[in-house]
UniProtKB/TrEMBL annotation, chain A:
Keywords: Cell membrane, Membrane, Transmembrane, Transmembrane helix. The lineage of its organism: Bacteria, Pseudomonadati, Pseudomonadota, Alphaproteobacteria, Rhodobacterales. This is Branched-chain amino acid ABC transporter permease. It holds the Pfam family BPD_transp_2. It is found in: Cell membrane.
Automatic annotation (TrEMBL), chain B:
The keyword Chaperone does not apply. This is Branched-chain amino acid ABC transporter permease. The keyword Transport applies. It is found in: Cell membrane. InterPro entries: ABC_transp_permease, BCAA_transport_permease. Its main location: membrane. Belongs to the binding-protein-dependent transport system permease family. LivHM subfamily. The chain crosses the membrane at residues 6-29, 41-73, 125-149, 182-203, 215-243. Keywords: Amino-acid transport, Cell membrane, Membrane, Transmembrane, Transmembrane helix, Transport. It is a multi-pass membrane protein.
UniProtKB/TrEMBL annotation, chain C:
Pfam families: ABC_tran (PF00005). The keyword Secreted does not apply. The lineage of its organism: Bacteria, Pseudomonadati, Pseudomonadota, Alphaproteobacteria, Rhodobacterales. Belongs to the ABC transporter superfamily. Keywords: Amino-acid transport, ATP-binding, Nucleotide-binding, Transport. PROSITE patterns: ABC_TRANSPORTER_1, ABC_TRANSPORTER_2. This is ABC transporter ATP-binding protein.
Amino acid sequence: MRHSVTTRTRTSTVAGIAALALVILGLFLPAFATRSLIQDLFFILTMLTLAQLWNLIAGYGGMVSVGQQAFVGIGAYAMFAGVILWGWDPVPAILLGGAAAVLLAIPMAFFAFRLQGAYFAIGTWVIAEVTRLSVAQWKTLGGGTGTSLPREATANIMGVKAIAELFGVRDAAARDILAYRLALALAVGTMAAIYALLRARTGLALAAVRDNDNAARSVGVDARRIRWLVFLSAAAMTGLVGALIYVQTARVSPDAAFSVTSWTAYVIFIAVIGGMGRLEGPIVGVLVFWALQTAFADYGSWYLLALGILAILTMLFAPRGVWGLIHDRTGLALFPVQRRLVTDVSLT
Amino acid sequence: MIWLDVLVQGILLGGLYALFAAGLSLVFGIMRLVNLAHGDLIVLAAFVILLIVATTGLDPFLAALIAAGWLLQRLVLNRVLGRDILPPLLVTFGLSVALQNGMLEAFSADSRRLRVGALESASIGFGPVTVGTLPLLTFASAVVAIFVLNRIFYTTALGRAFRAVSDDPTTASLMGLNPRSVFAIATGLAMVIVTLAALYLGMRSNFDPSIGPARLLYAFQAVIIGGLGSLWGTLAGGAIIGVAQTLGAQINPEWQILAGHIAFLVVLLIRPRGLFPRAVD
Amino acid sequence: MALLSTHALTAQYGQFKALFGVDLHIDPGECVAIIGANGAGKTTLMRAITGVLKNAPEMIRLGGEPIGALPPDRILQRGIAMVPEGRKLFPSLTVEENLLIGGQVRRGSGRWSLDDIYRLFPILKDRRHSPGTALSGGQQQMVAIGRALMSNPELLLCDEISLGLAPVVIRDIYAALPAIRATGAAVILVEQDITRALSVADRVYCMMEGRVTLTAPAGQVTREAIHAAYFGAAA
């Protein structure tokens, strides 16, 4: 008999194939989708990616950051700097966003990793505020009021012409399609990377560090290294998403790009409502968020009030979120990370 | 002389931040509860006071606010308190966003102010330094509030219960205390301080539904600088933030808030548990 | 009628079952010792009686009334006070404040006042303004006992009060027992020190692996019977 440890189940194989099909469908969706659907999907995909990343550091890694807006903001501003100051094309300038986020994340982690629990949360938030206030001093990028991408930069984004010809649409719509495809790539890439990380040994180590730092260290898990790895990778990806969001928006201001409400609170609600510590959670959560936003679109900020209350109710009555409820009822896990011992009897 | 003036104005500003922070310090010290909606509750209280000014009849409103704090603890926060700090953090974050948007719908995004006539611009001269009467009154209120809270905390049966439940809720329940009830009373008490803080917030500056999170940060910084569980430390923490902000503003008006945050980070870097941490923790 | 009785009492921590149908009773004014090895379920039994662990109401009765599902603070109000294992003084409170916390919920017209406690343990009066945790182990144990007495209990539960203390200190603490019993309170002593327990108790229960394996009047029990009940019949 041979024993092996696997995380794969029949459901996960089916889910994997379905996910692949969805991604391929997603790539060609612009051929027949309306422009507003593409814009909605861009919003859903970017929020989904942010929620997955927060879920990674908080839900899996136990680092409850309230400062993720720092990476969105610095990513956006680095991209703007690349375009406005150095004349880069906005699309490659997105990479500057990821790099800048890592550069910010290094001192932030150095500082915040000394803190625990609530102090960590507040510490990361204050650093994000410091970053916002510092960026607001950057007069060449508009200071406190912000700035827009110059028309000549947005008019000639690489790939837009090709997309416009391929789908037979105007440039503005082609820009949306390009942003949507990049968002799709980031979302898929982020989720695939997180899933791979969790299924690898690192995933177990991460869970061990979250549950008991000292105990994990005593069995040889390098807690520090794993924390750094996860925090910096999440920061890099968050920076890329931030830059991409502001390529699409084409206008940036410190208050918007570093908004704790938009880029951390809503993101946390998405993860919480969907179900923390699960890859499926944010997917469900972002759909709930989008549905609320669409349903209450005509009633001002009521949907945000509803979102806050929904997050409270979720924590009170279903702390493992909507996906947790589904999982408890049906045992369904699309992306299982739990190890199972499989005995192969055919080899005896 | 200008630096003496900056120092005095800064310390007085710190009185306001200590008022923001005292209720938070109480709740955080007793139950390790991170109430991210604390700033929004202050703003809410300011709006409620504004309503009172329009309609009069103070007592019922104050009572209602205390009752609201008590209910908040009983119905919501007690359910998520535990070893894990994440659930209460997320619940109060939800509350924060709900409150901000609820106030936005109820009171609009307009800036408001509690008008108190001549008191707004009154000032008193102390030798070379002239201080505003209102900032002085704020600071005095902070000192009195913290003095009273300390008396409650260290000399009354209620304070004994607060400390016992904070040390060890299970053993406290074996002594006949119900930790959940004690927590609810603490949050009710914190709301009294929140109301006082809201009064000065509304009299000293404009406020609108969105300014809560910033007040929360100042308050939390004061608590953390002072050291968990030390109310006088919270006052000192408020003064440090106040002086740093005033100093920053003196150099460049745009640096006011930034200077406060940086002072906080520096203190935290040197003393991760604050200046006056409680011995047992 | 028995003061306190348990009826097929079970308890578990998650998957782990710690008590398997425990039946015991104690009469008013009686002193009962519960002995057993580590892990026999003695402390779990105390946690169940005091309401720290939730049970079905009928599993524990006080004066005939079901109390199994009441929370700890309500159990105390009904007259069962606890000296927890490890003393568990409140570090932020002084000696006197620790005692006062115990008296916060007082029953009846006080059998025990602060002065009575200081008369029982005179050393505590000198140290009354010290933090509870600044005292020696034996003195801390005295505070823990005094704190429980301050509620004027009809039943005092003492969980391992001699644990980790020097023999001479244990003797001092046990010397307080007659005064406690003189108020009419019943006492349950959870002890590892069998000789000590048998010398003061009226009756003894021995527990092993979550079950009661022996019940006998303390004067009539043999070393062999205890040995068998403590380690299993085969030993």
